[in-house]
TrEMBL record:
Classification lineage: Bacteria, Pseudomonadati, Pseudomonadota, Betaproteobacteria, Burkholderiales
GO biological process terms held by the UniProt record: DNA transposition
One Pfam assignment: Transposase_20
Start and end residues of each Transposase IS110-like N-terminal domain: 7-146
InterPro entries: Transp_IS110-like_N, Transpos_IS110, Transposase_20
Single GO molecular function: DNA binding
Name of the protein in its database record: Transposase
Cross-referenced NCBIfam families: transpos_IS110 (NF033542)
Matches recorded under PANTHER family: PUTATIVE TRANSPOSASE FOR IS117-RELATED, TRANSPOSASE FOR INSERTION SEQUENCE ELEMENT IS1111A
Amino acid sequence: MDEVTLIGIDLGKHVFHVHGQDAKGHAIFRKKLSRQQLLSFFSNLRAVTVVMEACAGSHWLARKLNAMGHVTKLISPQYVRPFVKSNKNDYIDAEAICEAACRPAMRFVEPRTEAQQLLAALHRTREGLVTERTATINRIHGILLEFGVVVPMSKATLRRLPDVIAIHDLPVRLLQIIQRLHEHYKYLDAQVVETEKELVAQLHGDENAARLLSIPGIGTITASLLASEIGSIAQYAGGRNFAASIGLVPRQKSTGGRAKLCGISKRGDKHLRHLLVQGARAVIQRVHKRNDRLGEWIRSMLTRRHSNVVACALANKLARIAWAVLTKHTEYQGSLLVRTS
């Protein structure tokens, strides 16, 4: 055990497969441990480097192992896959994780703090509630349409839906069904509002959030998600690296000295990318009110490119600006970055 310098863990719900190797990459042991046995095993082991894929439960386990004195590193699963040899099983996966971690140019994922994970959980909860609320609205609309009733599904109409459909000659049982769905909609809408209040409350007193909110197109939801997903800003060498981690830079298929750029890569957090693109669209819609350099750049792009392309390009620029304001401890004010501390 004294020779072990690197341990790879293939994570599971109840069973974990562990691969240990020495400094030269020679396998020392393979173990299959339960969740309780895993923590006990590492608590009795001298400090080593532990690597695992960045997935569900990895950030929690990384914090536990770091507290024991170990050095924990997380790797994106896409970088581990090329090192899986021949047939696939859990032990080979753990060995592939060790092999990937030995590469000098390997990129690692920054483990999230508990606060960042709580913020991310709030976002996932809100996203699920919004999806359920939309599905409920569509369900009401579809059922009424089956009986020849067409009403606009605006918020004002939904608030007084029973009164709106009361003028139509509908079966009593149908009215009961609509009433039940309407109550469910009101519950989901209230839950969304409460979740958004929690997100706003968590942003108060956060200097980084205040800086992010100064950027055009970034509101409370996007700023809080950025704060939870970005982790340590020092892990990104530049704004382009951060934009690339969200999937807002072009995919490349370059060869033979000829550069060929495709559409955006769509890697990283899909929800964060969606929010940045929607924020960019909001900025584009009001670009006539902007007299700064950003407004000039958007108007110039719109004369040459489709609005969808400009939205993605602007989302890329907003991500780079977010990296800049967090790195330089500044706020965005028009064409200038004004130092605040």
